[in-house]
Input
Amino acid sequence: MTSTSPKLKIGFVGLGIMGAPMAGHLIKAGHQLFVYTLGKLSKEIAESSATQCLNGRGVAERADIIFTMVPDTPDVETALFSEDGIASGLTKGKTVVDMSSISPIATKTFAERIKALGCDYLDAPVSGGEVGAKNGTLSIMAGGDDAVFERIKPLFELMGKNITLVGGNGDGQTAKVANQIIVALNIEAVGEALLFAARAGADPARVRQALMGGFASSKILEVHGERMIKRTFDPGFRIELHQKDLNLALASARALGVSLPNTATAQELFNACAAHGGKAWDHSALVRALEKLANFEIGQKA
Output
């Protein structure tokens, strides 16, 4: 959105690891933001032009477009429909955009309830993690009406690069669940490969460097492979959140009669990490479960 574009009244509910930098891009573009979050405001948001509100209702009363970015399906439901939630402050013609990663089925229900108030609804979950949020390079997978998507797209372009309208309400969330399946299995594959290489006596850092030039190259190998080697497991994207996403995948697969055997294995490895106190580790730390099984750690001398 250029400097000559109209400045909008925008609400943002949920200013955590992802939400704060996403909201920051909207503020930097000159839009008037009204914000609410359960945690402490980041220094950047607190010192910005954003107006802090007491609850979601206060945000919705002041803004024309309201974004939500919270952890899980119940959190979105609370943000939208609690006594002081967003829905209680909406008037006809406003738009709600949920960028959280939640249940596709629940999303369809939420959309119906918001539309019944005379408002528009988009689900627009993202991929790219904290780095993508900070750099404004997130992939955004949207579900909703074409006209609503086109109207909101200039704002998405401030936060992301690969922006796709997948289909109707709920389809954006379905795409995100598919994304999380792929990411989890890639993390497992990279973890197994680097663990194998290290246990065989090769330098895992050089193996990673060699693989980055071939068909095995991937964003996961580039970013999370380096995390595994350097042992930098601060999130990022927490294991407990990826567990939530894979729960959505496995529950939906059961309902559809689809078998996702490798997704189930990845979830069990995340579960093992959580059992060892790692639910708040970055999801690249899935490799620690593999290391426990091998009784060997990447970086250890074979």
Notes: The first strand starts at residue 9 and ends at 13. The mean pLDDT is 96. DSSP finds 13 helices and nine strands in the chain.
